[in-house]
Amino acid sequence: MTSRKRLILNCDDFGQCRAANEAIIALLEEGLASSATIMAPAPAFREAAQWARRQGDRVSIGAHLTFTSEFPGWRWGSLTGAASLQDAEGFLHPDVESFERRAEARDVKREMEAQFRAVRDAGVRITHADNHMGSLYGLATGRSHLQLTLRECSARRLPFRLFRRIWEQDAFLASIAGAEKTLGKVVLLADLLGVPLPDYLVSHPYHVEPGETYASFKAILCAKLYELPEGITETYVHPAVPDRDMERIVPSWEKRVWEFRLLQDDDFLYALRDAGIALATYRDVAREQKRSRLGALMGIGKLLG
Prior knowledge:
Layout: E1 5-14, H1 18-29, E2 35-38, H2 45-55, E3 60-65, H3 96-102, H4 105-121, E4 128-131, H5 146-156, H6 171-175, H7 179-193, E5 200-202, H8 214-227, E6 231-237, H9 244-249, H10 253-262, H11 266-274, E7 277-279, H12 282-288, H13 293-304
Parallel strand pairs: 1-2, 1-6, 1-7, 2-3, 3-4, 5-6
Helix pairs in contact: 5-7, 7-13, 8-11
């Protein structure tokens, strides 16, 4: 019987650095992760793209649309060189708020197109798209670029990482004021544009929390597996192998090593099986999650009426 609970384990930041590439390639080759999303502007993009090109359709690779460069001493610029997308040093903005305040929509569009084109020109056939650090969502200032993003995904017939509903047990997403109402409007637009979305997203802290250990981190993630709702849910990880350069530059380096370890951990693998969860990819989202455009029009009519 087909599992009614399916999980996309997506590895973000493919192409960010050698340590990330090594971990993500190992997880994908062993079938321990569902997919990865690749960063076209990042320093190790070429290495990641070369591997992904050789895999063809054996793996699910998405575009990790990147508009920020957050680590001092280890930064990258935009592909287009647009002034509104970069700081005084010529790098992408170091945080989401700076990007939201300064980025001009026309430059965001050109950069997004350039990143999609760079991945395509590298020979990688992408299955979906998502967004590095959530910079396109408007969470810092309300200046969202989601309409543009959904239009670009629609033009390429790609699913996008959002979610149709907020899982009430996800403390972070459930805590965002007005999120459910805003999400409903964005989902209607996605449906109208024919952009498939997963049912749910499960978030977890990016940094090591005070007092957190690998054992407590693993226990929390394993417990979440037993609580997952029915449907297609995505959660993301940022795995990396231990690396001295990463330890020097990335404040969250330890959590990245934990996430690489977690997906190989026998306890986590047992919990996946015991909870009756099947791994899924964005190809499943593309096949199953597209909704009626007529229904979206009716929903928009109700909002306007």
